[in-house]
Amino acid sequence: MRDEGGIARDDRRSPAGHVGLAVEVIQRLASMRRAGVGKLQQPMLDHLVAAVCTSDTGAVAAVLESFRAARIGPDAVTTEYIPAAARILGTAWEEDRLTFGMVTIGTARLQAMVRQLQQDHRADAADPAAQSAVLVLIPPGEQHTLGAMVAAAMLRRKGVSVSVQIAPSVNDMSTMLANRRFQAVLVTLGSIDRVDTCVKLVKTLKQITKGALRVAIGGAVLDECRNDLTDAGADLVTNDVETVISEFGLNEQMSERNAW
Predict the structure, then answer these.
(1) Looking at the chain, which residues constitute the CATH 3.40.50.280 domain(s)?
(2) Is the pLDDT of residue 88 over 70?
(3) Nearest partner of 248 among 215, 207, 222, 219, judged by Cα
(4) Looking at residue 28, what is its pLDDT?
(5) How far is CA 111 from CA 18, 29, 214, in A?
(6) Fold type of domain 123-252
(7) Beta strands 134-138 and 236-237: pairing type?
(8) C-beta atoms surrounding 170 within 10 Å
């Protein structure tokens, strides 16, 4: 993690959403209501933000119990409340109401909550062949993974088997792609100084699979580097998970089962 004093102003947005497809669709998530899921309840959102910022180690467990008592399901917490809380933390940092360290701890706790809320999902166990498997890659150098985790959770709840890998080596990727069939790869890009790394990663993925594997890129800086990513071989440059599902034909493979 970079020292607080050395963070450029352009990077100060990152804790609000971190990297990944889900980062950039927070506003979309806020408007996407599932059956039985109502409008975001501000007191619950405030409670969540306070819980991840406090030094009380039991606060996170308590807020999760509050969500259960309010009959707000894990999917709503994962894809609506947690991204909204991350955005609030980032805004507080930009306005100097929270320190970088507090925001970092808070977002780490939010990420741990995503893992906990998704731990009962079992798509891979239900589908050993993993015909609808997606590989979510976080390139070397990216320091935050909350957005990627939320994006993975969105796919998993639709029945897509997802493997999340952080900064894998070329050998690791070659082994993964040789041993398991992935229908697509989603690469997250959170900062402009990681564009070259992302471009190299896309080219490597295409080279390993001889162009057969479809690659989507999502993240916080797409407008600044869309052409570079497309020229590198990216099939999609988008922050809309639904577009990835539709364009890559993942909806043809998805079932009603829960994902792991």
Answers:
(1) 123-252
(2) yes
(3) 215
(4) 39
(5) 10, 17, 27
(6) Rossmann fold (3.40.50)
(7) unpaired
(8) 13
Question: Any bridge partners for residue 229, and if so which?
Answer: none
CA distance 103 to 106: 5
Query: How many other C-beta atoms lie within 10 A of the C-beta of residue 71?
Result: 10
Q: Is the pTM of this model over 0.90?
A: no
Q: Each residue of 24-50: pLDDT tens digit?
A: 333 333 333 333 334 789 999 999 999
Which tokens go with 7?
Answer: 């963070």
3-state secondary structure the chain: CCCHHHCCHHHHHHHHHCCCHHHHHHHHHHHCCCCCCCCCCHHHHHHHHHHHHCCCCCHHHHHHHHHHHCCCCHHHHHHHHHHHHHHHHHHHHHCCCCCHHHHHHHHHHHHHHHHHHHCCCCHHHHCCCCCCCEEEEECCCCCCCHHHHHHHHHHHCCCCCEEEEECCCHHHHHHHHHHCCCCEEEEEECCHHHHHHHHHHHHHHHHHCCCCCEEEEEECCHHHHHHHHHHHCCCEECCCHHHHHHHCCHHHCCCCCCCC
Give the number of C-alpha atoms closer than 13 A to the C-alpha of residue 32, restricted to the C-beta side: 19
